[in-house]
Design a protein that fits this description.
The protein is built from four helices and two strands. With 144 residues, it is mostly helical. It folds into two domains: 1-75, no CATH class; 79-144, no CATH class. A hairpin with an 8-residue loop joins strand 1 and strand 2 (51-53). It is globular, with a radius of gyration of 19 Å.
Length: 144
């Protein structure tokens, strides 16, 4: 089966290597108010936009890229069974992600909702990775 939309298999390892520093950076930004001073942009005399720091944007983009590499890299043997597991896992993760989003809309209000939306940007890929890896491991155990 030829699937031209998947990354080559070695990208998964590269994704895990990228995930660790960007996840640490994201956690330090959210919980410890960490910023790199050299990423500060001065935007003139306007008080509202006197300085913009790009640390959080870099952390978010790094997390997205690393999770995409992990989620959408080919398996060593990419066959129809793996493609079906991938499709089922993607469908399951979309359903589950929107159930979590609906619960957040109902139960979380104020600025905490903004935090929930920040987490929700990444949960679809995280749910997919967890479900897909679980399904692949289950299939491998059944075959052995």
């Amino acid at each position: 089966m030829k699937n031209r939309y998947l990354f080559p298999h070695p990208y998964r390892v590269f994704g895990w290597v990228l995930l660790l520093p960007f996840l640490a950076l994201g956690v330090s930004i959210l919980y410890f108010d960490f910023n790199f001073a050299f990423l500060e942009l001065k935007t003139g005399h306007d008080e509202l936009f006197s300085g913009i720091n790009l640390t959080d944007e870099i952390a978010a983009l790094g997390l997205i890229v690393s999770l995409m590499f992990i989620a959408f890299s080919k398996e060593k043997i990419e066959d129809e069974q793996i493609a079906q597991l991938r499709l089922d896992s993607l469908q399951w993760s979309v359903y589950f992600n929107y159930i979590v989003l609906a619960a957040a809309i109902i139960f979380i209000h104020g600025m905490a909702f903004l935090d929930a939306m920040v987490y929700n940007m990444f949960t679809l890929l995280i749910f997919f990775i967890i479900r897909f890896r679980w399904a692949v491991n289950r299939e491998n155990r059944l075959l052995n």
